[in-house]
Amino acid sequence: MKFKIDNSVIILISILGMDIIMYSWIVNLFFKKDPTIVAGIIAFFGAVIGGYLTWSGVRYSIEHQKAKDRLDRLPDILKKCWRINTNYIPFGTVLASEISNNIYTSNEEVESLISDFYDKTEEIATEIAIDVSPEMYHLIMRYYTLLTDFGAYVAKEKIDDFINELFDISINTMKMVEVFEDEYEKLAESLRVEV
After folding, report:
1. DSSP calls for 58-124
2. Which residues of 148-182 are buried (b: 16+ CB within 10 A; e: fewer)?
């Protein structure tokens, strides 16, 4: 992680510079360069500079450790994203394609498939999504809610909306994978770790 000089450093240096000039003038005016006063002022500025450098070092260390911890966690997150995208989301996209191509003879047949899929996978997929991120969890919850609402879409004759929603969720879960992969590459580069 590269150390960046932010505005607070520039402001601090400016304030300290002005203070040194101002205090030097005041000390010279009132105390005529008493060595004890000069030593006290030097010690004060040394303490302020030392405190700032310590604070900057601690802040840098904490940020670096957070980035390193995130980098260590991202491979597990990516594996779970891919697991969701390969084991659970394809059911919805295949179902949407088959519904739009009139593969099924009745809505009851589709509802039975959805019910079986839901019963076998919803709890596992939700647990995996929770470990990934709040966004993935909300997408998976939306996905399973949508699947269970199939009958309502049929009743309202909005099956096209159902199909579009399934494809939208599939696209959004893949976008999340891309976001995590990009984050992994950027963190690895900023920490100078070989990917």
Report:
1. HHHHHHHHHHHHHHHHHHHHHHHHHHHHHHTHHHHHHHHHHHHTT--S-HHHHHHHHHHHHHHHHHH
2. eebeebbeeeebeebbebbeebbebbeebbeebee
pLDDT of 194 reads 52
**Rounded to the nearest 5 degrees, what angle is found at the Cα of 74, between the Cα atoms of 73 and 77?**
95
Mean pLDDT by 10 residues, the chain (195 residues): 63 76 70 70 81 87 91 94 92 88 86 92 94 94 93 88 92 94 91 64
Q: What SS3 state is found at 34? A: coil
Task: Report the pLDDT value the prediction gives residue 22, as an integer from 0 to 100.
Answer: 75
The identity of residue 53, as a single letter, is L
Burial class (CB in 10 A: 0-12, 13-18, 19+), 114: buried
Return the pLDDT at 5.
61
Judge contact between 150 and 162, C-beta under 8 A: yes
The span from the CA of 127 to the CA of 95, in Å, is 23
